[in-house]
Structures are given as C-alpha cells and as structure tokens.
Write a structure and sequence with these properties.
The structure is a homotrimer.
Chain A lengths: L1 E2 L4 E2 L2 E2 L4 E2 L4 E2 L4 E2 L4 E4 L2 H5 L5 H7 L4 E2 L4 E2 L4 E3 L3 E2 L4 E2 L4 E2 L4 E2 L4 E2 L4 E2 L4 E2 L4 E2 L4 E2 L4 E2 L4 E2 L4 E2 L14 E2 L4 E2 L4 E2 L4 E2 L4 E2 L4 E2 L7 E4 L4 E5 H12 L3
Parallel strand pairs in A: 1-4, 2-5, 3-6, 4-7, 5-8, 6-9, 7-10, 8-11, 9-12, 10-13, 11-14, 12-15, 13-16, 14-17, 15-18, 16-19, 17-20, 18-21, 20-23, 21-24, 22-25, 23-26, 24-27, 25-28, 27-29
Antiparallel strand pairs in A: 29-30
C-alpha cells in the first residue's frame, strides 16, 4: 500500500493500492486491489533510482472523477483524466495523456496506450487495443477485442490516429487501419479489416471491409432481432 | 492477504491472496499470488462502502474443487463453480454464475465474462473471450485468442449465446457470431469469422466461414501431420 | 515481498515483488510492482506443498540482463534468459526456456508461452501471443495482437513453430499458421491469415494471405507516408 501525501483521496480503496503524485480520486469512487494510479512515464523514471517514493516525487498524478470504479490489477498512468461515473474492468492499462469522458465503460484487459481522447458514454468492451492518437466520440460502442492501429507502414516515424465519430458501432475482433475515419453512426462488422474511411450511417463487413447496407436497414434488423424474430 | 472466516480452505495459497465470502477451496488446490476469489458482483458493491471486509459480508463465495490450480493475478467472482483438476493460467478473469467442469484448462489472460457453462476436459488456450450465455460442451478445444460474441446487432437489448458442442475444435483468433451452434466434432479454421451454424463433423474456413472438408478428412490429415509427413 | 537468498539482485524493485530461485537481476534493471520472477514450472510444483519458500527451493531462477525493465503485474518463469536493455510492458507473461535478446521490447499483456527464441532489437507490441517452438530473428517488428500458432491440426501431438526471419514486419491482429517461415524483410498486412511461407522481401495481405508487392515498393510507400503524402 502506498498513498501519496500529495494525492486528494475522496474515494475508497478495496485493499492494497498504489496512488502516486498529486492524483485526485473523486467522491464515491473506488480503486480496486493491486491497482496503481499516477504511474510515471518512462522519461521520468529513466533518470532516477526507482522506488514508489521516488516515483511519487516525479509523478504528475492522474485525475479520476466522482463515482468512478477502477477495478483490480489495473494501471493508470500520470496525466490521465477520467470523468465521472466511469467504470473500468479488471487488468486495464491506461497510459499517459488520455482523456476519458463521463459515463464511459472500459472493459477488462483493455489497453488505452496513451494520448487517446475518448468521449462520454462510450462502451468499450473487453480486450480492446487503442493506440496513441486515437480519437473516439460520444456514445460509441466497441465490441470485444477491437484492434486499432496508428501506423500505416510499420514501423514508420509517423503516427496517424483513427477517428471514430459519435454513435458508431465497431464489431468484435475487427481491425481499424491507421488514419481512417469511421463516420457518425457507421457500423463495422465483427472480424472486418477496415482499410478506408467508412461514410456516416454505413454498415461495412469483410476483409477488406466493404459497404453492405445503411444504418437504417441495420437498425430495422436490430429491432426484429430484439423482438426475437 | 484477506481470508474470509466464512470460507472453507482446504487447499494451499502461494502468497498474498484474497478469499471472500463462503468460498470453498478443495483439498490439494492452489491459489496463486495476487488472486482474488469470491469477488462480489457490482450490484452488491454499489450499495456499500467498499473494503475487503464489506465485500466479504456480501459475497456468496466461489467453489473450487479438489486438485485445481488458479494461477497468479486472477479474479474469480462469486457464484462461480469450478470442478476438480481444473487449471487456469495467469491473469484469468472468471465472472459470476459460471460453471466449469472437471479437468478443464482455462489459458492465461482468458476472460469468461459471466453466466457461461463450460463442460469437462475442455482445453481453452490463452487469451480467449467467452461472453455471457455461451455454452461449451465436453472435450472442446479452443485455440488461442478465440473471440465469441453474444449480440448479433450490437448494442442491442438481446443477448444470444453461442453453443459449442462436444469434441469441436475452434481455431486461433477466429470469431464466432452470436447465436450460432458449432456442431459436435466440427472444426473451425484459424482466423475464420463464423456467421452461421456449423454442421457436426464439418470443417469450415475463411471470412465468412464456409465448409471445406469433413472431420474424417481432417483427422486423416492430422494423422499424416503427426507422423511428420 | 519475497526475495530469494539465492538470487543475485543488482537492480531495483518498485515495491512488492517476488524473486524466486537463483535468479540474476542485472545492474540498473527494474522489477515492477506485483511481478514474479523465477516462477517454477508445473512439473516442479506438482510434487510439493506450494508456498513461496517451497517454490524458491525448486526454482532454477531467471536471468535478466543489465538496464532492463520488467513492468508491473508480470510473471517471468524459471529458465528464462532476458538480455540487456530489454523492456517489457505491464502484465506480461514469459514462460520457461525462453531467450530474449538485447534491446528487445515486449509489449503490455503479451504472452510468450515458453520455449521461444527471440532475437535482438525486436519490437513486440501489445497483446501478442507467441507459443512454444516459435523462433523470431533480429530487428523484427510485431504489431499489436499478432497471434502465432504451433499446431496445424489442433489438438495434435506435434508442435511445429513459426520462424520469423530478421527485419520482417508483422501486421496487427494477423494470424501466423504453425510451421510457416516468414522470410527476411517480409511484410504481413494487418488482419492477414498467413497459411504458407512468405518469401523474403515480399508483402502479403488478406485471408488467406497473398503477395501484393515487394518490400522495395513498400518502403517507397512508407517514405511517402512519412513525408505526409
């Protein structure tokens, strides 16, 4: 257990937890057992003799809003800003300079690999990989094990993020190639490899992904499905 | 270290371990370091001030049979029932109301996301994702990073599980779409996206997956391969 | 915290760490919080009453070279040999009899599942799965969530590793089928399912993967991309 004297802890701890630097944990929030919050970036660690005390000195802390829940075995880096009523699953990694909006869910084992912007009321299911420079709007749904990339010609010197606009739905185990824009309300089928921009309100499927129907048609099928038809 | 007074601990602990509620750990079983057993569901936690003592009070516990091994950094929720001689890898998450039969293996980093039925002598390799409502028979083999889904039109209000019957083999990084049935002895190739039922003893491949041969033909190729041909 | 008396610890510890057997941690190396180094193989554990003291007695230890960094929540088995200036991400699992060369990076949540040879200056991104018998050369780049397999007809009695030669690039969420050789400088596109050998300096894409261009053509496109064209 290590709780920084610089931290503002208004939430509760499940058990053995590490909170580093001037981290702020909002009222009614919970930190799961074996989690680390405010972990310093490598640039900071390189120059020093490592220990939680030394990390605490260099960490700029993370901010977690009210009524949020960071479950066990997770690591939240410094300069992460998590909103209110955010829930993360177990074993989540959220690296530096990431912003996560109110009401968003981040599923178990998901990696948000730093410098990512995620909106409000986003549902990120388990095992997603979201690299630096990704931008995700509001009310987006990411099914399990979506893999987003940020380099079209690895390993290059240029990172180019994927932008996913509001209300989009991304299917399980799909791959989104660096630099594409997924339009507002677009739907990506499970297992798709998306190599080009997806227009708004368009459903794409396959490898490489191609348009197959409109969002309206998808929503009609969804309604039938929900009725059990 | 937190060991519930309500728990029946006949197994051994590697080190720092958390056991909550009336959990039962069978004779000869091992709990790995940094594991949590009997973790309460969110519904229970919401109403209370979180701490291991408070969780212990509300947890209904988990049952782990004789001679089983839960490896380090794993989380087992309340109302999970794990049989005898079950082995799980490191960093496994098994959520509530899951049943796992005797002799089954659950690979490292795998997520069994609650309300799942898994039979006996199943081999689940590393990094699988198995969502609520999934049903897996006996002697099934799931290769690494299989992703199973439970919603055909996400994010809908209807969950529809995948059923995998006895003796089926599911290839690495394949995706099984919500609601399909994988017949007894069927084989799914690596990387396949399976959108329809797979008939018994049938091998399917591709995106979307299509039949390519019978299980008999597969088994003959397998024998040749095992002979090194 | 458990530090074997048999271990040679010249590096530093972040906090609660377990080091078992005659492990060697080089000068300037760091072990992250909640990591376990020198974890014994199952064969060793089966015969004994488990505890860190008992594990310490049977463990053959792991070797980690100078200036390396094993981040939090990771497990390194006995008989692993990690070189100098190696960095691993959080929640990594590296099983027994694995060799990792100097300057290599192993991304967060990656599983190296034992008996794997990895060269120097390899970049393994997050969430990779690398099974027994895999051989990876020098300067290879593995994008996030690559899945490598080692059994062409699971579940067979014959494991046949994938060989990836120097300078190869493997795209995100691709699957490499057991037994294939990825030639020197070859490039595999994201989401590909690679069922056959890939010739040197050849770019392959798709399911199943097919050649689409030369490495020279790829490198020209990469240069244009890096210039922002």
């Amino acid at each position: 257990m290590f709780l920084s004297k610089k931290a503002s802890l208004r939430g509760k701890l499940e058990g053995d937890v590490t909170v580093l630097g001037p981290s702020e944990i909002g009222e009614g929030s919970i930190l799961g057992i074996y989690t680390v919050v405010g972990y310093p970036t490598y640039r900071k660690i390189k120059g020093i003799s490592p220990s939680l005390e030394a990390y605490d000195e260099v960490s700029e802390g993370a901010v977690i809003g009210e009524s949020s829940f960071i479950r066990s075995h997770s690591v939240i880096y410094e300069r992460v800003r998590i909103g209110k009523s955010v829930q993360t699953g177990h074993g989540v990694l959220i690296r530096e300079d990431t912003v996560i909006g109110d009401g968003t869910v981040v599923g178990s084992h998901t990696i948000v690999d730093g410098r990512v912007n995620i909106g409000r009321n986003v549902s990120i299911q388990s095992g997603n990989y979201i690299p630096p420079e990704s931008v995700i709007g509001n009310n987006v749904f990411l099914a399990p094990f979506v893999v987003i990339t940020n380099d079209r010609y690895p390993a290059s010197r240029r990172l180019l993020g994927v932008h996913i606009e509001d209300e989009a739905v991304v299917g399980a185990n799909s791959v989104l190639i660096s630099g594409i824009k997924v339009g507002r309300g677009a739907v990506i089928g499970a297992g798709a490899v998306v190599t080009k921009d997806v227009p708004p309100d368009t459903v794409v499927l396959g490898v490489p992904a191609r348009p197959v129907m409109s969002r309206d048609a998808y929503d009609r099928k969804k309604e039938e499905y929900e009725r059990g038809a």
